[in-house]
From TrEMBL:
It comes from Lactobacillus crispatus FB077-07. Residues 10-64 form the HTH cro/C1-type domain. Signal peptide: none annotated. It holds the Pfam family HTH_3. This is HTH cro/C1-type domain-containing protein. SMART domains: HTH_XRE. One of its GO terms (molecular function) is DNA binding.
């Protein structure tokens, strides 16, 4: 199992519980092998990792998803910060930097992930697409085995989809969102970070489609609302999906009363970040359809 992501995470959890290296390794692997894995100097079989997790009372799904999530977010943290702060010049710098690296080394998946995310954010803020047709093919090829039924969705795939949708064709976005939604319905998962990632990625897909293909956006909206079985503690996700639904109705009727009411409620509830995001989305829709 990849030591760069998981070894350090296990070491942190072990130390939090004040479990010594020798005690954790006992009956599973050698103290040296475990130490090497924790410090990124060696590998451990997946079966042994499962036994180690059992010993420190950590569920495998929580360990795997949170570890990958932390790794991915750390990998793109500077890019995400530039996007949140509307630093277009920085995004352009990151995009060009990592595109150059990934073009020179086609096996460098990390640099290509960074390049794709930076280009996605840059396009969202400027409407300028920095990627080539080869880059786009490389992005969609990441999901080929999932679409062909050879692999299942994991956190890395969901993160990649959620942060590259502006670079995909509407048909590809819909196909991937359909696949992810189907997987969500068939494979229940109680991990909160997983649920957040899945639902927000699907909502993001709907909004990108609203801006690019209204028919596919309407189809996805109907699909999501058929079995949108989120519990009450996922209020933000429910609010976001409902806003997408109201945007579609607004485009059809030009009746902005429901949109105005939602924005007013968010203001009363002091949800300023969410309100700002909705206002930006509303402005983008008006610019696309009514100007």
């Amino acid at each position: 199992m990849n030591n760069q992501i998981f070894g350090l995470k296990f070491r942190q959890l072990r130390k939090q519980q004040h479990i010594t290296l020798a005690k954790a390794a006992a009956g599973i692997t050698s103290r040296q092998s475990l130490g090497n894995w924790e410090t990124g100097k060696g590998e451990l079989a997946f079966e042994k990792v499962l036994l180690l997790l059992k010993k420190i009372n950590v569920q495998p799904i929580d360990f795997l998803e949170s570890s990958i999530s932390s790794y991915l977010k750390q990998t793109t943290s500077q890019i995400s910060a530039a996007y949140v702060n509307n630093q277009v010049d920085k995004l352009l710098h990151y995009a060009n930097k990592y595109l150059d690296i990934s073009h020179r080394n086609l096996t460098d998946r990390v640099s290509f992930l960074r390049a794709a995310v930076a280009c996605n954010y840059y396009m969202d803020l400027t409407s300028i697409d920095l990627t080539t047709s080869s880059d786009k093919l490389r992005i969609i090829s990441h999901f080929n085995k999932i679409l062909n039924g050879e692999e299942i969705w994991n956190f890395e795939d969901i993160y990649f989809l959620g942060n590259t949708q502006n670079l995909m064709s509407p048909r590809d976005i819909y196909s991937l969102a359909y696949s992810l939604n189907y997987y969500r319905q068939k494979h229940k998962n109680d991990n909160r970070e997983w649920i957040n990632a899945v639902y927000n990625t699907l909502i993001n897909a709907e909004f990108v489609l609203i801006k690019t293909n209204i028919k596919l956006a309407t189809d996805l909206d109907l699909l999501l609302r058929q079995k949108w079985d989120l519990p009450d503690n996922y209020a933000f996700e429910k609010i976001r999906q409902n806003f997408m639904h109201e945007l579609l109705k607004y485009i059809s009727t030009q009746d902005e009363s429901a949109i105005t009411q939602q924005l007013h409620i968010l203001e009363l509830e002091h949800l300023s970040d969410l309100k700002t995001g909705f206002e930006t989305a509303y402005e983008q829709v008006n610019k696309i359809y009514f100007q």
